[in-house]
Amino acid sequence: MLRSLLTGALFVAVGFYSSSPLPAQEIKVQKPVAVAPATKLSEVFLKTVPDSLEDLQEIERQVTSLTRTAIESTVSVRVGEAQGSGVIIDNKAGYILTAAHVIGLAQKNATIILHDGRTLKGRTMGLNRGLDAGLVKLVEDNDVDISKLTAVKMGDVSTVEAGEWVLATGHPNGYQSGRAPVVRLGRVVSRKKHLLQTDCTLIGGDSGGPLFNMQGQVVGIHSRIGPSTSWNFHIPVSAFQDDWEKLVSGDMWGAKPLGQNAVLGVNGEDTDRGCKVTGVTRGFPAEIAGLQTDDIIIQLNDEKITGIEQLAEVVQQYKPGQTVQITLIRAGKNMTFEVQLAARD
Amino acid sequence: MSQDQNTRKHRAPAIRSVLSLLIISVCIHCLSFQSEAGDQLQPSQLTSGSQMRRAFRSVVSTPRSWTVRVRSNGKETSLGAIVESDGWILTKASQLEGEVTCELSTAERYVAEIIGVDGKLDLALIKIDANNLPTVKWKSDSDPRVGQWLVTPGLSMSPVSVGVLSVARRKIDPAPGVLGVQIDDADGGALVKQVMRESGAEEAGLKAGDVILSVAGEEIDSARALSNFVRKFLPGDRVLVKVLREKEEVNAVVVLTDPQMLIYDRLREMQKKMGGALSRRKTGFTEVLQHDTVLRPEDCGGVIVDLQGNAIGLNIARAGRTKSFAIPANHVVPMIQKLKLKEYAPYNPLKDSKQHTVSATTSS
């Protein structure tokens, strides 16, 4: 099984981090995580691939019925230098789901731009850096009635299957005046516990934007991409549903802030002898040091390497900028390379 | 395995239960392996995968007969659309150079003549010597809705790619074109200090130490004059550059580059590459329909159709990982007659001096 090394994937937007966290304020809220009732979808959505014009028309009917709400609930989120997207899921309390790497820290001022260009103030709430889930709350505004904004519900990501049709919206390359949130249609490539992969193409600025199922419910939040156009990764909404109270109370938890995580830049698969390299990411340390596809990595400094996920964990024990020795087998011979780790940003 | 079976015959029941446990765990392993394999979508089932595109065959059965494969000097450069039955074909202008040929869906091949070029929309009208060809059925009365399928036919039974409308029509501001050189003042021109990697200047063979004397017939007397003049053109435009190299005058035709493509920054470089090659000219359009079709730059220039098989526009650029642009039909159709009447003659940088490409006069 080919697995992508997350640290080899590029983050869609660049988070901005500074100063230490401020104490979170206490807010009492209703948990808006009840799953919306699912309406029955047409048979075509159960097919592996549509196989007739009628099937395609049915998909088109369903997709075009969802786009308006999808677009209107999508916002641009700006915190300091970082710019990404988000989605309004509660127009009473004014909650917006986004990516942790877009907001960076809790209790920061945020600027929210609605689909039609109106601008509101927001405040960052909690974030799970490990999963890349972040929450923003809109601040009451004299000109904009928050309760009149379009909000969407979160769906049940546990029922999402490979092949399911999904709709992505967001602000690719950042907010552009006169351009509504950009719609992309795609399919779920795979669902892992903490990551959804689709072929809805994303780019910097989309981070934090919503992924909708064909019921119009949010099932994912855009997080990062890889080199192939079918490598688009989204945080499952369960990351928000499972820790809603913590996010609302402004907790920050999970992995170290991004940019402090070391990265090697390889994709690989597990083999009996070690981690077989299936791809090196251009411009990343592995490529610069001369690692190649089909190399089998067997050791990193003193640690024996047994597979791709274990390699990722070992790499995480180091800091960006540190040099490590990687021993590998190439064409039957053992070779050792010095690799200076880079920061994941 | 046979050994296990032998032992089972003679040993106590305890061993038998261990064995059955083993079998169960193996089955579970099989099951979980199967479900994992099924949990990963096959590449052919991706939105633009081969199985998916097959579903669109009836949509493109007629549109592919209007479509031609355009080659420049034998290399695939774009698709084209047959707009009149006696051999008139529209395609993307900035891709054309050298000898142009067209291949029809019937596999017939023709040499084409470039009749007219409009730099503003990046359209070229070319002519082949053929008759009774099927022609494009345009739909220009209304735009598709956001989320509607948009299908790009090629010459084959299945379309080359599919996607949906991402953004309603809008203007794309022009980016200035650049040669891709770092310059300084020099006697009677501009001195090339450095040629940037992957730039049009590098491709055309400009070298550090060259002194640029003129661009598109305009005499250059300083570094500032050069950059001010060149930025009037768009990326993808071709300009004749006259340089002084080792006391000899040398001519070079430089295809101008989008400055965005030259910024060396690891992340930007990576993002640029994340999603394949992009069109040289991808900005400065009056109006475009943005769709999410993953297209190769050489698959631009032909029609894009809705599920009814009506051409709603002409693909004009692969503009980024998430976006492709089509010129809406209502902008394309009026251009056909204008181009035919040679209102916009093709610009030949080697012959025409002191004349901008059309884009230069129409860009802001």
What does this structure look like?
- The complex is a heterodimer of chains A (about 350) and B (about 375).
- Chain A is an alpha+beta fold.
- Chain A folds into two domains: about 5-255, Thrombin, subunit H (Beta Barrel), CATH 2.40.10.120; about 260-345, Pdz3 Domain (Roll).
- Helices cover about 15% and strands about 35% of the residues of chain A.
- Chain A is built from six helices and 22 strands.
- In chain A, a hairpin with a 2-residue loop joins strand 18 (about 295-300) and strand 19.
- The longest helix of chain A is centred in the N-terminal third of the chain and has 21 residues, at about 55-75.
- Chain A is globular and about 65 Å long.
- Chain B has about 375 residues and is an alpha+beta fold.
- Among the domains of chain B are: about 60-135 and about 330-360, Thrombin, subunit H; about 180-255, PDZ domain (Pdz3 Domain).
- In chain B, about 25% of the residues lie in helices and about 35% in strands.
- Chain B has nine helices and 18 strands.
- In chain B, the strands form three sheets. A six-stranded antiparallel barrel of chain B has the order 1-2-3-6-5-4. In chain B, strands 7-8-15-18-17-16 form a six-stranded antiparallel beta sheet.
- The longest helix of chain B is centred in the N-terminal third of the chain and has 26 residues, at about 15-40.
- Chain B is globular.
- The relative contact order of chain B is 0.17.
- The model of chain B is unreliable at about 1-40, about 265-270 and about 350-364 (pLDDT under 50).
- Chains A and B meet through helix 1 and strand 9 of A and helix 3, strand 8 and helix 7 of B.
